[in-house]
Design goal:
Largest sheet of chain A: 8 strands, parallel
Shape of chain A: globular
Strand order of the largest sheet of chain A: 4-14-13-12-11-10-6-5
Structural class of chain A: alpha/beta
Number of strands of chain A: 16
Oligomer: homodimer
Radius of gyration of chain A: 21 Å
Number of helices of chain A: 15
Strand content of chain A: 15-25%
Helix content of chain A: 25-40%
Chain lengths: 395, 395
């Protein structure tokens, strides 16, 4: 593979691991059970990160986030650089202090939000220029600035700046974006290593739905050397089978001793399928966003609380849940809150959903540990398919 | 005073007190320290009730409401009769179960919301007809139906249906509405006593800003006999001094051995001033509504978190508060949440405000107990006037 920019200095040796490590504890097929260590604590893998885009997981206090079982959250470089600003967060003591979350934080690099939120973006070798969705200001983001921002925030796991395309896209476009992302990966690593702080930096595999580009990206990033490797540019419009096929191609090309992070994914079924293909880390807005829109994720599959059939149902969503919001409130009450557009509906369903995702991940981890992952997936999917049990006669 | 409807049966003897009592424990001037007992527990007076209009205190879980120190909440008959419906709540086990609040609940009768929220209302002797603000349906509410609804909800303290006018209003209008409310009070009591459940029923003094009408209303209601007496129709457009003057006229005309409830009031200063005039109970949307709009009530007076001067302020709102939301988050972070329109801003500021109101009432109660109420009021107002302390030099 060619260096994307021959004027760059030689790539440094693999990075120092102070304040970040990954231990693989067990495997079951391609599924992996492990643990990452950060300056803010340990996180069991595979894990799911609730999204705290603007330095808050929407609708939840940090205590409530922690009570779901979450050990790490994601925050967005794009959002925080625009408001309140990375230098301001740094002056206030960093993101952990700012958002009152003393546990690990992963920050994305902004590449995905530049694609999805901003207008008039212009991608060039040096970086990306875009118009802020908040105030229309013209903002520049380079690989070096993305690292600087994440350092200012005090992130435990930083992500390289990448260019993320929607699918479908032409092979030419995918190749161009992949090579640009690769050049940015190298520059990100150099910027990260020259900064006066520790933590982890992950590279991001791009290449869309093209297996050859994906493999080239994975191998080149591995040669550069990162603390972990993300697969970006999926769940951007393609069918689930295309996503899973891509993961199955890419994961084996990544070093087994490093964590693998599938960005922005996904449904509960996506999590099972991706763990089965060797993924260790996830983030997604689905549990929080759907919670705000009246949809609950449960052992019985998704339950739409907007539906009038819940109006008189005294049953809780799941009396075996570890989440009080799933146990202590009737479906009728949740339906009422959603219909009345009350904040508490969004709050309780967000708690229910984030807890369900965490319980699912805990079940996955336990199953891998005892070599029962395939069976766990089958039982979990069966429970979803069986669906929401009807009220008993006479109720 | 004349019976407003001579065809009605004679008024029954004073009500049975099972499941409701009031004990006066101390007085300090006209300020009173006491305790009410309900089937769902004790509540120390004077107290402030957070408003849970639609069976939820906006933005707070019941656990969070309780953590503010609140021992009782208010729910709205008007809202709940329209959605989800009183019969539905009853079938689901009553309002305490429905909203997962096992402590005392007071329900208003709907009179105030009919005035403030509904359109095309028509007031007649039999009751009020109005158009629902939710779906436009024509709804009738009589004194008897208001009691039936509150019984279905399982309220600990029910309120009579009244007609509430905005001020200013003509004396003729005020007199008509006061006499109608009085007739409805008698019908409410008969309906309440014929119902197969216990609890308390409060009458509501009306008469606007006319002292003579207010006194007539208070004396006539006392003659009918209720578990407690509310002063309605204040904080509806009149200056504070008019409100306080009216309270000072009415309170002495109410029986000392019954609790006195000033409906829909008010600011922290209103609470001090009304307690000084013998009021025992309050409710108001100010702490919750203002919390959703970025305004914090604190020992230092109100603080508007929307203001840009907070953007870099690392100080918490009040590190001596019993509320973690006031201690564990910087003003800069709260400013960020408010500017970013994040739910957590509304949640945290609602916690801060409801807690501040509860701390204020706890301070009032402690001061009355030791005969120090006047001094407490002076110190509290001085602290508000001193205002928000500026950051130290160099920060």
């Amino acid at each position: 593979m060619e260096q994307s920019d021959p004027t760059l200095a030689p790539v440094p040796a693999p990075m120092h691991d102070a304040f970040f490590s990954f231990r693989l504890l067990a495997t079951d097929g391609d599924a992996r059970r492990g643990e990452i260590a950060t300056a803010h604590g340990l996180v069991a893998t595979p894990f799911f990160m609730p999204v705290g885009a603007q330095a808050t997981v929407k609708g939840l206090t940090p205590e409530a986030v922690r009570a779901t079982g979450a050990e790490i959250v994601l925050a967005n470089t794009y959002h925080l650089m625009l408001r309140p600003g990375a230098e301001r967060v740094a002056a206030l003591g960093g993101l952990h202090t700012f958002m009152n979350w003393p546990y690990p934080i992963l920050t994305d690099s902004g590449g995905f939000q530049v694609m999805s939120l901003s207008q008039l973006r212009k991608v060039a070798d040096h970086g990306v220029t875009f118009r802020s969705h908040i105030d229309g200001a013209i903002v520049e983001l380079s690989p070096e600035r993305a690292i600087e921002i994440q350092n200012l925030l005090g992130s435990d796991i930083s992500m390289q700046l990448d260019e993320c395309l929607r699918l479908p896209a032409s092979r030419g476009e995918l190749e161009r974006a992949m090579r640009l992302s690769l050049a940015w990966a190298e520059r990100s690593k150099r910027a990260f290593e020259s900064a006066p702080r520790c933590g982890a930096l992950f590279g991001i595999v791009q290449g869309g739905d093209d297996p050859q580009l994906r493999l080239e990206s994975a191998r080149a990033l591995t040669a550069v050397g990162f603390h972990g490797y993300a697969i970006g540019g999926l769940a951007v419009g393609e069918p689930q089978e295309v996503m899973l096929h891509t993961i199955a191609e890419v994961a084996p090309a990544l070093p087994a001793e490093r964590p693998r992070y599938l960005m922005g994914v996904g449904t509960p079924d996506d999590l099972l399928a991706a763990v089965a293909r060797g993924i260790d880390m996830f983030d997604c807005v689905l549990p929080t966003r759907n919670g705000r829109h009246g949809l609950a994720f449960t052992r019985f599959g998704p339950i739409n609380l907007k539906n009038a059939r819940h109006a008189d149902d005294p049953r809780p969503l799941d009396d075996a849940s570890s989440c009080s919001a799933a146990r202590d409130y009737s479906r009728a009450y949740l339906h009422h809150l959603v219909k009345a557009n009350e904040m508490l509906g969004a709050i309780l369903l967000t708690m229910v959903n984030v807890t369900y995702y965490q319980e699912l991940m805990a079940g996955i981890r336990a199953a891998i540990t005892v070599g029962n992952f395939t069976n766990f997936c089958a039982q979990t999917r069966e429970s979803w398919a069986r669906g929401d049990v009807a009220p008993a006669q006479g109720i």
